[in-house]
Amino acid sequence: MCIKKLKTLIVLNILVLSLLTMKTSVNASGSTLDTEDIGLSIVGEKSDIYYKKITKGLDFTTSLQLENVTDNPITFSVYPSDQIPAIGGGWDFHSTSKQNNLSGSWIKQQEVRNISLGAKKKIVIEYIVNVPKELEYGQYIAALVVTKEMDAVTENANVNGKSLSLVQTRDKAQFRQIVMDYNPEMSKEKLIVPSLAKRLDESGKLILDVSYQNKGTILVKSAGKYSIGTDDGEIIQEGAYGMDSIYVGTTAIYPIELQDYFEEGSYYLKIEGVYGKNKPLNATLKFDVAVEESNKSLDKLEASGSVTVDRINVIWIYLSVILLILLVVLSVFVIILLRRKKDDKNKTEGSTVGITMEEIPQINQEDKT
Predict the structure, then answer these.
(1) Residue-averaged pLDDT of the chain
(2) Which whole-number Å values give the CA distances from 58 to 138, 179, 196, 268, in the listed order?
(3) What burial class does residue 208 get, using C-beta atoms within 10 Å of its C-beta: 0-12 exposed, 13-18 middle, 19+ buried?
(4) From CA 187, how far away is CA 166, in angstroms rounded?
(5) Per-residue pLDDT at 141
(6) Quick count: other Cβ atoms within 10 Å of Cβ 181?
(7) 308-344 as b/e, with b when 16 or more CB fall inside 10 Å?
(8) What is the H or E stretch that residue 297 is in?
(9) If I label 106, which of 26, 138, 319, 349 is the partner at 20 to 30 A Cα–Cα?
(10) 328 vs 314, 323, 325, 332, 340, CA distance in Å?
């Protein structure tokens, strides 16, 4: 691929990413759902939350009443979802294609309902919740999600003198939480940090996606500090973190952006914090930065202007190392060669440089006559 085409492809990718994020309104909890007004009003008791004290094995019915507050018909979708955490904690939901496997799966009607509602009209949608017969004490949260596909938006852009049009749509949503309490005062709090994953962002910064997993029976939040260091004890980066709601049976991701450029090597991430009712949270996770990752990060950081590296100095360092290795090899070769010459010389001197007295044959006097 030629350089010009490669640059065009990079610009297009950046443009697409910009357009995808431009129309997305992320709420305070970090959700990827856009909860702007879609012309529907969820009415009823505590419109966004429905509280219910439950007994294991005992079903109950809940409802969702919606009103079209506009002067035009509205078509929308309604579906049940597990309550899952967004990036950094807080509420989020599954998409319509995702199967529920937590509290959202307790709702009997799992199908997506597509509904058209006339202007100023109301509709009541009922749902049956099947509470499991085997259940630990705790608090369990599901959600009923209302989504509406907004009108397509066309964005025009000019790339290398070419006019491009990109069309993108974005679903907007409203929701009602179903908070089910089963003796929550006797719930179990347990939060662990089992793993992390690495990735590079668009600028080349290395991101650590740290997993916070709720193994208890009630939602928890967490806050504290972290430090990143090397195996020899050098601290490279420190900071604070704050995790919003992490729901029962879910794993929330907290991203940590590593400062500047990380060279290849072995590192560790240390978490020191608290969660729930002031319980301690401590974890140490090791990770490696491979040569390929380090070089790719450096290339992207330079391209984005985030860092400037003196490539000449780097080249001279590599050349110096190579020359040193060659010098050592050459020295060893010369030493071996000199030793061989010395051995050959000793052999030559010890064979027939002259005739010794012992080697001269003795001549009898009789032979002279």
Answers:
(1) 79
(2) 16, 15, 39, 48
(3) buried
(4) 50
(5) 97
(6) 17
(7) eeeeeeeeeeeeeeeeeeeeeeeeeeeeeeeeeeeee
(8) helix 291-304
(9) 26
(10) 21, 9, 5, 6, 19
Place of tokens 């914090």: 273
pLDDT of the residue at 361: 52
**Per-residue model confidence (pLDDT) at position 305:** 66
Please give the C-alpha separations between residue 364 and each of 80, 357, 361, 368, 369, in angstroms, as whole numbers: 127, 16, 10, 7, 9
pLDDT confidence of residue 303: 75
- What is the rounded distance in angstroms from the CA atom of residue 154 to the CA atom of residue 22? 12
> Position of tokens 């959600």?
143
- The pLDDT score that the predictor gives to residue 198 is 92
Q: What is the tens place of the pLDDT at every residue in 277-297?
A: 999 999 999 999 888 888 888
Residues of the chain falling short of pLDDT 50 = 1-36, 157-162, 166-169, 310-312, 352-357, 359-360, 363, 365-369
The per-residue pLDDT for 261 is 74
| Contact criterion met (CB below 8 Å) for 31 and 90 | yes
Q: Token pair 């409203």 is at which residue?
A: 174
Q: How far apart are CA 250 and CA 233, in angstroms?
A: 33
Residue 18, phi then psi, degrees to nearest 5: -65, -40
